[in-house]
Design a protein that fits this description.
Order of helices and strands: EEEHEEEHHHEHEHEEHHEEEEEEEEEEHE
Distance between the termini: 52 Å
Number of strands: 21
Helix content: 10-25%
Radius of gyration: 25 Å
Low-confidence stretches: 373-386
Strand content: 25-35%
Structural class: alpha+beta
Largest sheet: 6 strands, mixed
Strand order of the largest sheet: 6-7-8-3-9-10
Number of helices: 9
Length: about 375
């Protein structure tokens, strides 16, 4: 698939605030692409620029080779679904879906056929004659999707469309959105602050922070190989360690010095040079833990610590292990669990280990990332004593 939607060095300022800062990215035809980031990172402003509701100060937008930067919203084959769905309360479900075709003066027979196809697609045939106030939040969202899709847009923009729904309904609608996308095959651009939504729906994700893109990649690439400390902290849980890069031990691996630890072997795909301060990021599920020191190869790191907390959650156990001034979060999945084995308990001395490929050396975070770094290991990041 070639590039279909191109955002070329787009910037947007509101007074002294730079909401979007020289953003460039390409989205493929038929892709489910998410813009992910915290509140105020610029993702909704970028979506509004794509829709034509905002005009960029610099840069341009190309859709299927055509420059649409100056086109007003109604002249773009781009439709938007907002958080509140913006349904007409006095119209029925059928009439809401048909509204765009009525404006275009489509013949009634063709309009009725198309509306029935949309009702079938979003499974709302039985609700067709009801008003929006008579249907559920999830059904309203499906009406909004059908109303947008009936206009046959080249791109569907979705601005936090599940934010108003409760957790169970949100999970159900995630699956339905994914199925609708697979059925219609058009390009979806999805804005969310919820990493779970983005990870479960997207072909690729752009993680945004302070108006800039920190990383673009598949959900697996973003989670398993974060390019910055912000991405590592924002996507999933991770442990951060402050240290200093030492000498290279091979082309892709460096020694890292962290106070209170032996020298560690770490994957260094960022080519951080010796002497530079770094963060080491390790996901909690990447650790092994046990009472007996294991025999491991040279690509593993092994450290002794003391268990400070244990929480058994059925499918996994969460441990917090103290090593010097660090309290490390470790998640152990129960692939097999034997009731006659003595479980690791609070205040026990244990060995913890991880493979060098499961740890990432990252440059130090910026001031804008500090709120993420200060969260405890139950949420994001890692607690440091003191």
């Amino acid at each position: 698939m070639g590039e279909f939607l191109e955002i070329d060095t787009v910037s947007k300022n509101f007074s002294t605030l730079c909401a979007v800062d020289r953003v460039s990215l390409s989205i493929r035809k038929g892709e489910f692409f998410s813009l992910l980031g915290p509140s105020g990172c610029g993702k909704t402003t970028l979506l509004r620029i794509l829709a034509g509701f905002e005009h960029p100060d610099k840069g341009r937008i190309l859709l299927d080779g055509q420059d649409i930067t100056a086109l007003p919203p109604h002249k773009r084959r781009v439709n938007t679904i907002f958080q509140n769905y913006a349904l007409f309360p006095h119209l029925t479900v059928r009439q809401n879906i048909a509204f765009g075709l009525q404006v275009q003066k489509v013949p009634k027979k063709k309009m009725d056929e198309t509306v029935n196809q949309m009702l079938h697609l979003v499974q709302l045939e039985s609700q067709a004659e009801k008003k929006p106030m008579q249907i559920s939040g999830g059904q309203k969202q499906r009406v909004a999707v059908a109303r947008a899709l009936i206009m046959k847009p080249q791109i569907l923009l979705l601005d936090e469309p599940l934010a108003a729904l409760d957790l169970k309904l949100r999970q159900k609608m995630l699956l339905e959105l994914d199925l609708i996308h697979d059925e219609v095959g058009i390009t979806f651009v999805y804005v969310t602050h919820d990493q779970g939504e983005a990870m479960s729906l997207s072909d690729r994700i752009a993680v945004m922070n302070s108006g800039k893109i920190e990383q673009i990649g598949t959900p697996a690439e973003i989670y398993e190989a974060p390019r910055s400390s912000f991405v590592a902290a924002f996507i999933g849980d991770t442990n951060f360690f402050e240290g200093e890069a030492r000498d290279l031990v091979s082309q892709d691996y460096s020694r890292l010095r962290i106070e209170g630890f032996p020298d560690l072997i770490c994957f260094n795909d960022k080519n951080i040079m010796p002497g530079n301060p770094v963060f080491l990021s390790i996901r909690p599920e990447k650790f092994g833990i046990g009472r007996i020191k294991p025999e491991l190869n040279s690509k593993h790191n092994i450290v002794q610590g003391r268990v400070e907390d244990v929480i058994y959650l059925g499918g996994l156990t969460k441990y917090w292990v103290r090593v010097d001034e660090y309290k490390i979060a470790i998640y152990q999945q129960h692939n097999r669990f034997f009731l006659d084995e003595e479980p690791i308990r609070w205040n026990e001395d244990v060995w913890i280990w991880w493979h060098a490929d499961d740890s990432f050396m990252l440059e130090r975070y910026s001031e804008s990332d500090e709120s993420l770094m200060s969260l405890p290991p139950e949420g994001v990041g890692m607690e440091k004593a003191g």
